[in-house]
Amino acid sequence: MAVRLKDIADELGVSIVTVSKALRDRPDIAQATKLKILEHVKRMNYRPNLTARSLVTGRSFLIGLVVPDLIHPFFSEIAKSLSTILRKKDYFLIVSSSESDATLEQEEIEHMLAHRLDCYVIASCQRDPEPFRKISETGVPLILIDRSFSGYACNFVGVNDRRAGELATEHLIEQGYRRIAHIRGPATNVGNRRADGFLETMERHGLEVPEGYVIPGVKADGTVGEERGKRAMDTVLKLDPRPEAIFCFNDNIAVGAMFRAFEVGLRIPQDLAIIGCGNYHYSSKLRVPLSSVDQRAAEIGERTAKMIISLLDKPATTRPRTVVLDPKLVVRASSQLS
Questions:
Q1: Between the CA of residue 79 and those of 86, 102, 239, 300, what are the distances in Å?
Q2: How far apart are CA 90 and CA 107, in angstroms?
Q3: Would you give the end-to-end CA distance of the chain in angstroms?
């Protein structure tokens, strides 16, 4: 038979409320009592009845997260950080991948809606915000991360992508490079803003961006990766004159571009400088460590978790909240000659 809170309370001679406070790590009980209860709970293999708790509180204590790619370091870091903070508040994360497919994303959202989760966090690959209006109608909080939609008021946590493009391009110019190309990302706010940051910085410095120097690095379905970087580099190698440096939409594309450059005998950065965006965990461990713009993925997860908790604690708050973090430049060998 399942162990109940009452069973634990009776055996220890304390109230059910005291046991509940210990399990929720409340500060208003003695530390010795808390440790005693937690040890007893562990020994009795107690598992809380989440269904019963949901019926009493009206909450599932489950948060839904939909991202384009579960393998992508950026989104996995967000999920890890988000889950760590939510767990401390007794909320748990349900994670799903849309595989960068707008139709699949909508199906995943519909599935989560059926389970009446407490909050939805979505890094969307939709072209417009229409699918999110159904979530808004339920009254359940929705937070968009990484990508927002112009004209659509919604809670948002992300990074300043235009600034990311500026930082990368400014760095390459400061290193003395003048012929700079950009392997761009998808035609979303994220991809467009990074490309805008690149183009505006080049213009501000009076530098030309010749025809062909902005190279598509994304499939029609929105996926980006090392293979796309290799193919984009094939295009770069045909340019005349060839660029001296490249700013890549993300580190995956940058790594693919580097691999192709090595295959044709180019030296990095002596023959071609490369900088990415994302500052993924492997970027410093490459044959030539990759310069990158840090998108602060862990902090995006942290700030999103805090926003969730705040929204659930104060459900009457209706005005959308926005958190836009400034990216950070991380310089490594791939873009420095000395």
A1: 10, 20, 39, 9
A2: 27
A3: 69
Residues 302-312 pLDDT 10s: 999 999 999 99
Q: What is the residue-wise DSSP string for 29-51?
A: S-HHHHHHHHHHHHHHT----HH
Residue at token pair 């995956």? 252
Q: What is the 3-state secondary structure (H, E, C) of 91-107?
A: CEEEEEECCCCHHHHHH
Q: Which amino acid is at 39?
A: E
Which tokens is 151 given? 């004209």
**Shared-domain flag, residues 233 and 268:** yes
Q: How far apart are CA 278 and CA 134, in angstroms?
A: 32
Q: Residue 89's domain spans which residues?
A: 55-159+297-325
> DSSP alpha helices (H): ranges in 58-174?
73-88, 102-114, 133-138, 161-174
Same domain flag for 202 and 289: yes
Total domain count for the chain? Answer: 3
SS3 content of the chain, % helix, strand, coil (to 5): 45, 15, 40
Is the four-CA dihedral 295, 297, 299, 305 of positive or negative sign? Answer: positive
pLDDT in tens, 177-195: 999 999 999 888 899 999 9
Helix (H, G, I), strand (E, B) or coil at 83: helix
Q: Is 47 exposed, middle or buried (0-12, 13-18, 19+ CB in 10 A)?
A: exposed
Sequence-ordered list of residues with C-beta below 8 angstroms from that of 42, at least 6 positions apart, any chain: none
Q: How would you classify the pairing of strands 142-145 and 155-159?
A: parallel
pLDDT digits (tens, 9 = 90+) for 211-252: 999 998 766 444 568 899 999 999 999 999 999 999 999 999
